[in-house]
Amino acid sequence: MKRLQTEVLVIGGGPVGLSTALLLADQGVDCILVEKHETTASHPKASYFNVRTMEILRQLGVADDVYATALMPQGVLFYTRLTGHCLGGYNFTDFPEYTARVLASTGSPACVSSQIVLEDILKQHADANAGIRVLFGHEKTSIEQDGARVLTSVLDRAAGETYEIESRFAVACEGIRSSTRDACGRKMVGPPPFGHVMNIYVEADLEGLTGERNQALFWICNPDTPGAFIGLGGDRLKWCFNTPYFPEDGESAEDFDEKRCLERIYAALGTDSLPVKILAVGPWVLCGQVVDQYRQGNIFFGGDTAHSNIPTGGFGFNTGMQETHNLAWKLAAFLKGDAPEAILDTYHSERRGIAVFNVEKSRENAINIRDTGATFGGRPDDTDEIDLDTDRGRAQRAAKTRAIAEQKTHFLFLGQEIGFGYWDSPLIVPDGTDHYAVANDVDDPVHVYIPNARPGARAPHCWVALRDVPDKPIPMHDVFGKGFVLLTRGEGDEWSRSIDSGSAAVPLRSLSVGPVGSDSDLLDAEGRWDEVYGLDGQGAVLVRPDGHVCWRAFSGPSHHDGVTLRDALGVAVGGAISSPAR
Questions:
Q1: Cα 484 to chain center, whole Å?
Q2: Predicted confidence band at 582 (pLDDT cuts at 50, 70, 90)?
Q3: Fewer CB near the last or first residue (10 Å), C or N of the chain?
Q4: pTM above 0.85?
């Protein structure tokens, strides 16, 4: 039997699988990606690409391609029907303080596009990457591991040929119905499903109908066709309409032929005069669960294989991309001999809790949105006369408008997007400071993010310029991604001298940060670096390849009395983990 060999096999060619392969290649890891389908997606699922995801896509050189076809959302609106009553919504310009925080917190803002577009872009980049062998039309038929390797049988569906791939590790990103996860004996944990939804992909000029442009969502609040039209960027003519159906009433996914779908769409629009083209139809189940373990031996789980997310909040694909961003550098560090295998266990300990939080927040959003009269699953209450000009109808509309005003953290959640951290990880050296929500008396850390460099946090954004190119500022995150980075305050001579004599045998770049006009490696273009990194004197911050802070010193090496830089590097690559690797 024909056999291929690689360091890491990625199973699944959706957005998380493709980005995982690109992240591994970016770390110098050889990989093969197999995907059973011949082409990328033809039915969109993910549409909101959040701040952290766009920062990762920028690292991969993909963000500009995504932005070129994307919508920069201005808000969301709620209607009884699109030609009916507007009940309210969220226009981001009505939240100037929040908008200012977003703009100050990243150089890669969130956007709205389509999974169809993203997968095509990612595949083009993967196909062109010499470190990745992309095998679409290749179906995994079996997988086993013997301790030091993973053996995977793959069927070339076009040629009818079966062969074997031998890899050191495998990352399964093959979707909710993962046979790899099942073969490993892992289970999804969480409450049972609580709704069924039909996703109807359409082409229609909804903006022309409403007169509203650049909205991420048009929510529909009525008793017979509640749901949401989800914008997909591009030409602004493609939308997904998600609306519930009820098997307990005898409805099934098979009932939704083109005629039935058009009836639902026209009822949601409130008119049948607008041309509507049905592009695709697909059902999904409203369910939020997370796999019990992110690692089984040499096999890891990511994306929908690791968690089924409810789309309210858009954290499914985003969580998936961010978790394998966490995994890729760790696999690279182990394979290159820079870290013990125990570092790989921290993929589970660092990421599962975040997935659980995102899933639970999405569940909360899905339940709370019913108060507005809109829903992805379940039945909204008190909407029987919401379209009518009656006392009851007016009262229902007023009640739904009040409920919409209570949905803030469903739509404005910067703290959830980039405020997460690995606070209790064995790879992180605490510095005694409090979480930003505690330190600043923040009541709602899902909504509010305050830039901070507390160890465990995503390193905060600020604009810097390279010393040799002082007139072209770049986001600070552009300097992360390839190995560990030590950021030092001022010219950093004292830290530079300490690195040669005291650092561990881990690849490390030292970059000094100083004011414009100084001789520092990075010039603080807006004068914010000291503030957001919380430093003065000759302090320093150590940043991991995934852009998370793992150690901070508030003074120079001759006065620093905490964990040394050398020891911090050892901790950051798993040297302090006492439990054996599985």
A1: 22
A2: very low
A3: N
A4: yes
Residue 581: band (very low, low, confident or very high) from pLDDT cuts 50, 70, 90: very low
CA 417 to CA 186: how far, in whole Å? 28
**39 and 195 Cβ atoms separated by less than 8 Å:** no
CA 347, distance to chain mean position in Å, is 16
Q: Are 532 and 312 in contact (CB under 8 A)?
A: no
CA–CA separation, 488 vs 519, rounded Å? 13
Domains and CATH numbers, the chain: 3-71+114-188+289-347 (3.50.50.60), 419-572 (3.40.30.120)
pLDDT at 553: 95
Compute the CA torsion angle 196, 199, 205, 206 (nearest 10 deg): 20
Does residue 501 carry a pLDDT above 80? Answer: no
23 pLDDT higher than 80: yes
Q: Has residue 220 got a pLDDT over 50?
A: yes
Q: Are strands 463-466 and 474-475 parallel, antiparallel or unpaired?
A: antiparallel
pLDDT at 298 over 70: yes
Cα gap 25→8, rounded to integer Å: 10
Give 235-294 as a DSSP string: TS-EEEEEEEE-GGGT--GGG--HHHHHHHHHHHHT-S-S--EEEEEEEEE---EEES-S
CB atoms within 10 A of CB 268: 27
d(CA 317, CA 295): 19
| 565 three-state secondary structure | helix
For 464-534, where are the alpha helices, taking DSSP H only?
493-502, 529-533
Which of 218, 43, 206, 23 is CA-nearest to residue 117?
A: 43
End-to-end C-alpha distance for the chain, whole angstroms: 30
Mean pLDDT of the chain: 94
